[in-house]
Amino acid sequence: MDGDAFDLNSQAPETDGFSGLQLYGNILSESDGLFDGRASGSVLPPYRPPCAGGGDARAATAAPYARQLLFDGSTSAAGNTVRQRANSAAAAPVRRQQLNNTARRRTNSQGAPRPPPPRAQRAPRTQRAPRSAVRGQASGSGAPFNNDEAMEDHVEDLASSGGPPEDDDGIMYEEEEADGGSSSEDEVISRCRNNLVQQQKMIVQLVPILGMYSDNYFLKLPKRVAGDSGLEWVQETLARDTQCYNMFRVERPLFYRLHNTLVRRYGLKSTKKLTSVEALAMFLWIVGGSQAVRQADNRFRRSLETVSRTFSRVLTCLLKLAHDNIAPKDPTFAEMHPNLENPAFWPNFNDCIGAIDGTHIKVVVDKSKRIPYLNRHNETSQNVLAVCDFDMRFTFVLSGWPGSAHDMRVFKDAITTHHHKFPHPPPGKYYVVDAGYPNRPGYLSPYRCTRYHVEQWHNGPPPQGMKEVFNHAHAKVRNVIERSFGVLKMKFRILLNMQRFPEDKQTRIIVACMALHNFIRESRIADREFEACDADENYNPMPSSAASTWPEDEPLVEDVNMNAFRDDLAHALFHEV
Hints:
The chain is mostly helical. It folds into three domains: 8-113 and 128-190, no CATH class; 230-325; 338-576, no CATH class. The chain is built from 20 helices and five strands. A hairpin with a 5-residue loop joins β2 and β3. The longest helix is centred in the middle third of the chain and has 36 residues, at 182-217. The protein is elongated, with a radius of gyration of 45 Å. The model is unreliable at 1-45, 49-87, 128-145 and 166-180 (pLDDT under 50).
């Protein structure tokens, strides 16, 4: 091989546990000797001469020299050393020249095959001794060499002349393969050489694969020598109320209730190396502060693989919880919610059962999928549709739609594709929606092209006219879903800055956070964010920038009866002012 051949010793040293590759590296580094002939250590077996005394009497004379013509001139059994002047690599061009000369001699000037001369004109072929008996003779010679110098001179002459001697007519006859001629030996050498080249290429291809396998499964990092384990840090954090809420975003009694619920009903279990308490704390710490997996790796003194598996395991349990608690408490909506007894709402909104709206949650996507996920703020997000009641509980959620999708498009998918899960309003009941939805039976929207958003009333004059009075009351009723979104995002900060998870996993994280939101609300355990919302009906920890509007490229089709119902409500509210 060339000097710049692939060095296996540099790719897989013996100290790395691949002693076999060291041997292959030694073989490849000595490839010149392998390809030149039967060097010491060659994979080709040495020639063994037949026993002297059997067959031709000349075998006894040739026996001392039978092993002298090895491919690289190694020492014979008698101790005599003959250095071969022309090895197999040098003899290969000579052999090709012989074949070319033979082909030219057998064709005439026009290129047609030359007929062989009559048998009477042919020169008698030289009688040769059997090769099986005399291996040390030159091709065409009838007697063995007398000494080493004669054989060495003959080899030099043979290499310089380009082949064995020719007959009197100048025609060199090919040796019969049946006699064990040089052509059979060349084929054996050629096949061995090709096999070695193929084996070398295969080894060169296997070295990177073996290196990658070694890096992934054998070269493990040393175990951590941690001062405080993850469980010790969790126990220390749970012992202090303020630290527990800051790190896990829930109060300590709520943490234990959530843990017991997931263990008893939704399959959260401890493992040999990780308790269920530490697993739940790890999940809440990641979603509560938008922490990356590598940060959890450092905080909990666990490997990246352990953190990822633990996060997925808790996420699966919370999705089971979401299947049960993201639903209306009363599917028939028979009773009016106590919050609607407020004089500002009663009796005009007695039949309202909740609010519907969409919110954008930032996500991380590949560059090839970035365009569909860009929203109107030029950020990659998902448009998540949610339905909530007046307890600030989510009763339905649909996530996964890209940020460029309009609210109405997501809403149509919810009431058609997921109609079996969507909490449809019964006859006579309705949800309040913003101007991004049409005014249809079961869904009451405000007047368009009229001041509506809550923040617009705080910084402007009081409502004027029948339509503004209605929009102001409608916005206060629908504000429950805005505040629910605000509490959700402030409590679980991962919804403000999603980490680089797979896209489908990001969608499931959104649903899991809403399940946690409902669990906290249903537990009736004191929570700081919910208490602030209960104390002030206008409190919103994270108000939205603007309400959605109807797309200009789509025709607005509204129900006539629902428009008349809206006008009656507006008239009643305006005359009560």
